[in-house]
Write a structure and sequence with these properties.
This protein has about 250 residues and is of the alpha/beta class. The chain has a single domain, classed as Rossmann fold (3-Layer(aba) Sandwich), CATH 3.40.50. Strand 2, helix 5 and strand 3 form a beta-alpha-beta unit. The relative contact order is 0.15.
Length: about 250
């Protein structure tokens, strides 16, 4: 690190859990963010400000005026721009260090097969089950830790699915692809603005802990937030040995 970086990241360096070694790991690491909306905004801003060296942002959508209520990486003057490009601008305005690569495409299987192997951690900030399952499959196939978040109305959830741990569940263990709940979208159901900030911030924290070598303790746990009462429920999850995704791929 140069003198400017030592000053910029000094509050991280002071932490016993992180220090210079951990910050250098962040600077050398690569995070893949799927989705640049309500969850992806705080994730990208915190990873960028914390000095993650390489960040890839995937989102096919453009900034809309209705996004600005909660998607804090975007601004009024960037309405109509690709969200991924808007996020890159937002990161650069905070920290010039990260190299931010943007992909303005849907995160389909082919794209994930290309991008996931290059990443040290994958953060799922998308808004639909099809993409979540595609991301999970790619992470299991390539043994990459996955930080998953979701938020709708006044409820949120976050977890880490770490395929490097033999006994840890994957996303499909908890939400089987052949038995999905009804899809809900914030465009029709609404979402409380700070809720995505809370969940996204937890996702960013877990990603930074993984990348810095501090390690996450959330594998096998699902944190559920009730935004009405501001109460958390911590659910312990087990790997399904007949899981349609990870059972065969982990043998």
């Amino acid at each position: 690190m140069n003198d400017a970086q030592l000053l910029r990241y000094s509050r991280h360096i002071l932490l016993n859990e992180l220090g210079i070694d951990g910050q250098e790991k962040l600077l050398a690491s690569h995070a893949l963010i799927i989705g640049a909306g309500g969850l992806g905004s705080p994730v990208a801003l915190y990873l960028g400000s914390a000095g993650v060296g390489h960040i890839t942002v995937v989102d096919h959508d453009e900034v809309d005026a209705t996004n600005l209520q909660r998607q804090i990486a975007h601004t009024l003057d960037r309405v109509g721009q690709p969200k991924a490009e808007s996020v890159r601008t937002a990161i650069a305005q905070i920290n010039p260090d990260p190299q931010v690569h943007t992909v303005t495409r849907r995160a389909d299987a082919a794209l994930l097969a290309e991008l996931v192997p290059q990443a040290d951690v994958v953060i799922d900030c998308c808004d639909n089950f099809a993409t979540r399952h595609a991301v999970n499959l790619a992470c299991v196939q390539h043994r990459k830790p996955l930080v998953s978040g979701a938020a709708i109305r006044m409820d949120g959830q976050v977890s880490v699915f770490d395929s490097t741990q033999a006994d840890a569940p994957c996303y499909a263990c908890i939400f089987p692809p052949d038995n999905l709940p009804e899809e809900t979208r914030c465009a029709t159901m609404g979402v409380f603005a700070p809720l995505v900030g809370i969940i996204g911030s937890v996702q960013a924290a877990e990603a930074l802990k993984i990348l810095s070598g501090m390690g996450s303790h959330m594998a096998g746990r699902l944190l559920m937030l009730d935004g009405r009462e501001l109460s958390w429920t911590d659910i312990r999850m087990q790997r399904k040995h007949d899981c349609l995704v990870c059972a065969a791929l982990r043998t």
